Amino acid sequence: MIRALIVDRGADGGTAARPGGIEESDLPEGDVTVEVSHSTLNYKDALALTGKAPIIRSFPLVPGIDFAGTVRTSAHDGFKPGDAVVLNGWGLGETRHGGYAAVARVPGGWLVRLPEAFTPEQAMAIGTAGYTAMLCLLRLEELGLTPAAGPVLVTGATGGVGSVALMLLAKRGFEPHALTGRPQEEPYLRDLGAAGIVPRGEYDVPGKPLAKERWAGGIDAVGSHVLANLLAATKRGGAVAACGLAGGMNLPANVAPFILRGVTLAGIDSVYAPLERRQEAWRRLARDLDPTKLAAATRTVGLSEVEGAARDLLEGRVRGRVVVDIAG
To answer: pLDDT tens, 235-265?
Structure first.
């Protein structure tokens, strides 16, 4: 029996998470079997664990949209037993058993070899949130954003994507500003590299079609009014990478920033990004992420504690990253 956390649906249609186990025969198809040591708690995981959104498509299911561990067996040419690997997305924890189990079986083409710079625990301190932050930065750089262009706004700054985005932008020489509704976290955000703090209340309300040009670009994990106001305040020729919807799926914006200032809104898909893009992101993370700052923004919980941590995350009581120790 493989130790796992399982989400199931009751007769009333509600969902609940429970500790338990799955048989090896329950693992989905794949040519690589991985002994999972660590996973992490992302926003999507929290929604799945609490049933706040229909993330999980079939029941019962092991949640967890990413994992890090060591290859146990492989029929894939790219991997052999003992290789350290990481996986983000690809429907794990949504349509097939995910990372909250001691063993996972996946297609080898979904795996990325873990950079030597990171332990499995550090890889999951980054997790899908940090990997997504890097995808955002890569896209903004491709669109021509440079530190010389001016300040960059990071929304949802105390969250997983936001925390890592601040670290990465600061390391690359940008001037990142943190938008947050938690002013008491200013010391934490400045330690990560924030050059300034912007109250969320300035952006999570209906705004004007165009605002004063303030930002060269942005990384947004919130959506809704926050994203609309960020776009309205983006400078001519600037770019914003959107990767989340913590504040809502709607976008109450207009075309003015795009046709009058040439602003670009770039959507970031971390779930099904191609392998080459994933490998590039992890190479850059190994080069550009400060392990000391990452550690300061991370805490670790055991598998038995992750459901409580998920509730805390959705209620705004979590900052930074939460690593899940599968053996804990």
So the answer is: 999 999 999 999 999 999 999 999 999 999 9
What pLDDT, on the 0 to 100 scale, is given for residue 11?
80
Residue 178 near residue 162 (C-beta atoms within 8 A): yes
> 2-114+297-325 maps to which CATH number?
3.90.180.10
Burial 236-252 (b: 16+ CB within 10 A, else e): eebbbbbbbbbbeeebe
Specify whether the CB–CB gap between 163 and 191 falls below 8 A. Answer: no
CA dist list (Å): 243 to 2, 29, 160, 179, 224 = 33, 29, 12, 15, 12
Q: Structural domain boundaries of the chain?
A: 2-114+297-325, 127-267
Mean pLDDT of the chain: 96
pLDDT band at 29 (very low <50, low <70, confident <90, very high): very high
Task: List all residues 6 or more positions away from 269 whose beta carbon is below 8 Å from its beta carbon.
Answer: none
Select from 224, 255, 260 the least CA-distant residue to 242.
Answer: 224
Q: Are 256 and 233 in contact (CB under 8 A)?
A: no
Structure tokens at 104: 């996972």
pLDDT digits (tens, 9 = 90+) for 282-312: 999 999 999 999 999 999 999 999 999 999 9
**pTM listed for this prediction:** 0.95
Q: What confidence score (pLDDT) does residue 81 get? A: 98
Which CATH number is 127-267's, of 3.30.70.1120, 3.40.50.1820, 3.40.50.720, 3.30.1300.10? 3.40.50.720
pLDDT, average across residues 204-219: 97
Query: 196 vs 21, 154, 177, 199, 319, CA distance in Å?
Result: 47, 10, 5, 10, 18
